[in-house]
Amino acid sequence: MKTFGINLIGYIGANLGLGHTAREFARALLAQGIPFCIHDIDPGQARGDFDNTFGHLAVADPEKLPYEINLFIAGANSLGHWVFDMASKSSNRDRLNVAFLWWELPDMPDHLIEAARIFDVLIAGSEFIQATLMNSIPGIPVLLARHPLTIPNGIAPDREKFGMPRDSFCFCAGFEPFSDPERKNPFAAIQAFQTAFPEDPDTRLIIKINNAPEAGTENDQLARLYAMAARDTRIILLKKNLPYADLLSFYASCDAFVSLHR
């Protein structure tokens, strides 16, 4: 019989939204006094090893995870890749396998549905995702859980720190070069900005690029973004990876957030 506690599995240390979500779950478990350890997955493209707050709780071998509950934090599109493989390695009949999944569409493809059946319980962070999972994967309990969230103290605007004009109206948008560019859609954000404000010198669009690769190693989509931005001096590209508190300070420095996420 395994010891009560949770094996938290995911991109725990990565500079990704899913990494931040996993760290928020770790903070919630810590606040509730629930025993847990982590098994950190490296997402590749030099995006791992960004935040090692919980590194002292890491267990490297999935077969040696000590607790009776496996909690996976993942996008559903990972079900056919590392999640299925990791669940197979870390599962046995003494463990409860749970997945907190993110998904953006009302339907799921068959190969993800079949992969999800390895879990005993699914958890959704919104009613939309819960309905999708319940409709797509009948027979497995799907729970609704609020996303844990902590805001560090002292978050305040600081335009000078981020190279933003003091008196301009600043829009901001985000882009992850290793995600789907058509889904994140930074190009349409630029087009919308230029359509709305074709010649207004007192407006700016700041695009926060997460995990920007080194110069000379850009992919085609990132090169396209750089070229579009270079043609308009009002567009600022912020390419430095920021700790969570600094990222929130950047958002607090902006006047409006633009998302044409598909």
Which class do the helix and strand fractions yield? alpha/beta
Which bin fits the share of residues in helices? 25-40%
Care to count the β-strands?
Answer: 10
- Detail the poorly predicted runs: none
Strand proportion, as a percent range, falls in 15-25%
The main sheet orders its strands as: 2-1-3-4-5-6
Give a short account of the largest sheet.
Answer: 6 strands, parallel
Distance between the termini: 45 Å
Number of helices: 8
Shape: globular
The secondary-structure element order is: EHEEHEHEHEEHHEHEHE
- Give Rg in angstroms: 20 Å
User: Averaged pLDDT, please?
Assistant: 89
Task: Kindly describe this structure.
This protein starts with a strand and ends in a 5-residue tail after the last strand. Helix content is 31%, strand content 21%. It is α/β, with parallel strands linked by helices and 262 residues long. The strands form two sheets. Strands 2-1-3-4-5-6 form a six-stranded parallel beta sheet, sandwiched between helices. It contains eight helices and ten strands.
Keywords for this entry:
single chain; 262 residues; alpha/beta; 6-stranded parallel sheet; 4-stranded parallel sheet; 8 helices; 21% strand
Summarize the structure.
Helices cover 31% and strands 21% of the residues.
